[in-house]
Amino acid sequence: MRKITADHIYPISSAPLENAVILLDDKGRITGIEPLADHNPGTVEKHQGVIIPGFINTHCHLELSHMKGKVDTGTQLIPFITNVVKFRDVPEEEIQEAIRRADEEMYEGGIVAVGDISNKLDTADCKRSSQIRYYTFIELFDFLQEDWAEKTYLDHQAVYAGQADREGNRKSAVPHAPYSVSRNLFARINALNGGQGTVSIHNQETPPENELFLSKTGGFIDFYRSFDISLDAFEATGQPAINYALAHMDPACRTLFVHNTMSTPADIAAAHAWGRNGVYWATCANANLYIENRLPNYQHFLDADAKVTIGTDSLTSNWHLSILEELRTISRYQSYVPFATLLQWATLNGAEALQYDDELGSIEIGKTPGLNLLTGLEGDGPDNFSIGNETTVKRLI
Ligand SMILES: [Zn+2]
Q: pTM of the entire structure?
């Protein structure tokens, strides 16, 4: 048994504690949260700083880890995607080594579960032996071509079958983005998931995405032309991109919208009115800065009481796979988001989004959430804590 305490404990599911001790069994399961005074000080590990649950990274592309530093920053999304496509031919060994290093980086940084987009099987080995739990999103896209949907679906059956074959890991099939998935393919994905699990989709990451759906104009027209893919059969819906997703995704699944850089209060409200099993909003602040140099307006999400989660995206579009680095960036650019709210985004909301909240996401008796220690915070207590340049995270368990 371990007994751990620090100056402050943030259970997340309840108010911050002082002078409390967390009791854990050999498997890291919390067996008690008790007053420190009830325990012999010699039996308690005491830390300076703030104890929080393990982090949840709700959006990653582990299989793109070998492209770290290879794609330019600030290009905007469409040239970025075009560059990524060019770099897919890399020796298998290099890919596997990069995946393992990225998985280790996340573990060391206090991440206990990851929602990971997979187009291939490259990450399956790593996920089998990792100390992190993975919810794999097997991602499909057919460039809006209705008659490619069936082949796309069949081509991904082996990837679907080969992912998440270890206890504790899970999977679902997911659409890539509104601008890349036909109605037929949405229907195929819905049928495979059967209204179960969590489904993620890249959403409103760049202005041309809305332009395509509102008026069939903007950068995606040239993007498709450059790949010689016809958009003749595509008709503008006259509504923002997210409405196309809402019209064709299954509202019975828990839904995780990713990026949401351009999402408006009306978009957020439309999704909340639509979802029947929880709507979550993953933000990947550093990737947004890397690719488009713009961030979502988090005030819209706070105003709507939206459940925001944190993602790192991939090493192709980020310098680290670190939840703390994401929180540092949000704190730097939109410092009005309260410290306790950021912690909830990084832990419990993410666990709920991936449906791992029976075990992870908060410090509660019966859970095995992992424990992280934050040090070097700015401020001197829960009333004014914030994440600054000196803040570090250390995994305690
Ligand atoms: Zn992504």
A: 0.96
